[in-house]
């Protein structure tokens, strides 16, 4: 599958300045990757409109192709996924590569385990150091043979997975549950229950269930996010093609909104205020700062405080939306007083240890960040300007690169971001969009 290639140099320099104009948020990789998985397990023909082009999105498309789906780009730009011939060759040994997609590997591994053939599962970068003990502990209970590198990649699995009553730990990520829900639906699970303890990121489970419903998959009965029961009835799959519109991305859009609150005003389009995406909660944090904020069905208009004073510090629980930490830190840096964000424990197993990375990189801006148990405490800058003429490093983490770029908008001088292409993981057009909003960049 060939997607647009966006070239980004190793270093990008952001020049401070105001942002203005109108921009459309990127496609949500949370929505796009789930759509790719649902299109695969539906066993039918699907049309995915507004498909994402990030590295993680491309990795997921590559995975469903490796697992037997035929994918074409329509003249409209939509992706046509034909999953009507998955059984052909399913017993063959296969290798699938997830790039650096944490959601991809946690979601698709259980789906891939439905096949009777041996599958080698690979990844790169930070994905090779992330814990995969869940599969070692869980999949054998469902009839799958698993070999791992001491709980790390590469994995080798051999199915087929057989749905059974099972209890899993949801404290690390809800993405493992997403994979099992899709796998059970694909296997037409009957009279079985997935029980979950200490489930985190419930809104992302809501997104999974919504995507499953949109693709006509069998939906379990949700008992307060503690038990997901697949009823006895056999599910009749529809024969009509499914059309799915990928949502705009609240995770990437959050950076645009924070930029508007700091140095706007801007208008951000393409974000569904009725979305189940957890990162929609950014609106509450922005409201608490006192910035100018107008939310309509098809657009969000946002700008600094009407009276021209500093934004107000806020208290925010990011336990269910840990991807908001980077834009929230950039926002808090410009708020007068101490901002407190809960949920730091969710940051250890991201592309970097984001709590420590944010602390180190924002110290270069002159922002003090204290980590205290599960809290992050940010000392805001009362004069509305951060240190400039500095060099930051993304640590190969897309959200760190974007947070530094947004923080640079009000810095005292230019800010260089090294390993700037990290944004391609989720938002390849990020720097282009900043330029469209009037930001001067040097490459």
Structure description:
This protein is α/β, with parallel strands linked by helices and 443 residues long. The chain folds into two domains: 11-26 and 248-442, Enolpyruvate transferase domain (UDP-n-acetylglucosamine1-carboxyvinyl-transferase, Chain, Alpha-beta prism), CATH 3.65.10.10; 29-231, Alpha-beta prism (UDP-n-acetylglucosamine1-carboxyvinyl-transferase, Chain). It has helices spanning 29-42, 55-66, 102-112, 133-138, 175-186, 202-214, 250-263, 282-289, 325-332, 354-363, 398-407, 430-436, and strands spanning 11-15, 21-24, 45-49, 70-73, 79-82, 94-97, 118-122, 145-149, 152-158, 166-169, 192-197, 221-223, 227-230, 242-245, 266-269, 292-295, 299-303, 311-312, 315-317, 335-336, 338-342, 368-372, 375-379, 390-393, 415-418, 440-442. Strand 22 (368-372) and strand 23 form a beta hairpin.
Layout: helices, strands, pairs:
Elements: E1 11-15, E2 21-24, H1 29-42, E3 45-49, H2 55-66, E4 70-73, E5 79-82, E6 94-97, H3 102-112, E7 118-122, H4 133-138, E8 145-149, E9 152-158, E10 166-169, H5 175-186, E11 192-197, H6 202-214, E12 221-223, E13 227-230, E14 242-245, H7 250-263, E15 266-269, H8 282-289, E16 292-295, E17 299-303, E18 311-312, E19 315-317, H9 325-332, E20 335-336, E21 338-342, H10 354-363, E22 368-372, E23 375-379, E24 390-393, H11 398-407, E25 415-418, H12 430-436, E26 440-442
Parallel strand pairs: 2-15, 3-14, 6-7, 10-11, 18-20, 19-21, 24-25
Antiparallel strand pairs: 1-25, 1-26, 3-5, 4-5, 7-9, 8-9, 11-13, 12-13, 15-17, 16-17, 21-23, 22-23
